[in-house]
Design brief:
Layout lengths: L13 H17 L11 H8 L2 H8 L12 H27 L4 E5 L6 H4 L7 E6 L1 H13 L7 E6 L6 H7 L9 E4 L8 H13 L6 E6 L8 H13 L6 H4 L8 H7 L3 E6 H7 L17 E6 L2
Parallel strand pairs: 1-2, 1-4, 2-3, 4-5
Antiparallel strand pairs: 5-7, 6-7
Helix pairs in contact: 1-2, 1-3, 1-4, 2-6
The protein binds S-adenosylmethionine.
């Protein structure tokens, strides 16, 4: 179904299902030999969502051998891609904490369990923002399995197209304190002007010493919806009902690195292949290339 300006979802539908998809990637990456990441909460969260495709994926019950674009190399590249992405943002928070930042905001937190699994310095407050049904599901599921946050976790259930800064402040956010912001796996689901507005608002709420991390997906500019639909069609036959072409906002938008720089941030970015090399994972072959292009992982600081 096409996106609308006020659409909503849970973790089994629409954009929410993409949070379950990436958490499934983290679950598999966590249990691979020589794992780069350790997210013990990803698997129970994915199982609790109950989407059959991802449950079977975790159980090793999916036979994708007949799917043309699901070669073992491509699947491994996808899992490694989740591992390097997760590790990049884990390290980002660890580095920010090492500089003394004690306030973090995870935008579009989905099934991100960093508030439960990173070694936050004492006194750190981690805010999570996502749609209310997403926040409630994760909080409830993790409480049910006895998980406890490793920082003071404060949740803000609101749509990022609404007045989230007011909701964040109401939850106790202190704009005078430096903040480590994260927008992981979010931008392609926002219309171009909403992406700009997001970084305008983040900047307005950021004291000196703040940091922000996100990613830039060059392929969103000329995203070929028809090709994406064709690529995902065989997976639909296996029960994966996520039509990325209907969920993303394709077309021209600001290059997030340039936009952040224009707002006064000191920006750096590392392309996916360099990140694979940094973390000693086999760099994906041309056949494994994603329709979103070679993602650039971005971090920036404000002085
Ligand atoms: C691909 S998932 C990424 C989740 C998480 N950041 C991660 O990497 O595991 C996309 C997330 O963006 C959230 N999201 C997208 N648009 C949003 C909006 N307008 N308001 C609130 N959350 C939004 C979805 O609910 C979902 O959790």
């Amino acid at each position: 179904m096409a996106r609308t300006g006020d659409d909503s979802w849970d973790l089994a539908s629409s954009v929410g299902a993409t949070a379950t998809m990436v958490a499934a990637g983290r679950a598999i990456a966590s249990r691979s030999p020589d794992p780069l990441i350790d997210d013990p909460f990803a698997a129970p969260l994915v199982r609790a969502v109950g989407l059959d495709f991802f449950t079977r994926m975790l159980d090793g019950d999916l036979d994708l051998s007949q799917v043309p674009d699901a070669s073992p190399e491509r699947l491994q590249a996808m899992i490694d891609g989740m591992a390097v992405r997760t590790k990049f943002f884990d390290d980002y928070f660890t580095d920010a904490a090492a500089t003394g930042v004690r306030q973090a905001v995870i935008l579009a937190s989905g099934l991100d369990a960093r508030a439960y699994r990173l070694a936050w310095p004492s006194g750190t407050v981690v805010y999570e923002i996502d749609q209310p049904a997403v926040i409630e599901f994760k909080s409830g599921t993790l409480a049910d399995i006895g998980a406890t946050p490793t920082a003071e976790r404060r949740t803000v259930g609101i749509d990022l197209r609404e007045d989230w800064p007011a909701a964040l402040r109401a939850a106790g956010f202190d704009p005078a304190a430096p903040t480590a912001w994260l927008a992981e796996g979010l931008l392609i689901y926002l219309p171009p002007e909403a992406q700009d507005r997001l970084f305008d608002l983040i900047t307005a709420l950021s004291a000196a010493g703040s940091t922000v991390a996100t990613e830039y997906a060059p392929g969103i500019m000329d995203f070929n919806a028809e090709q994406a639909r064709e690529l995902s069609a065989p997976l639909r036959e296996h029960g994966l009902d996520i039509d990325m072409s209907a969920l993303v906002y394709a077309g021209r938008r600001s290059h997030v690195m340039d936009y952040l720089a224009s707002l006064g941030w000191q920006v750096s970015g590392i392309p996916r292949d360099d990140l694979f090399a940094r973390f000693r994972r086999p760099v994906p072959t041309a056949e494994s290339v994603d329709p979103l292009g070679e993602i650039v992982y971005v971090s920036a600081t404000l002085s």
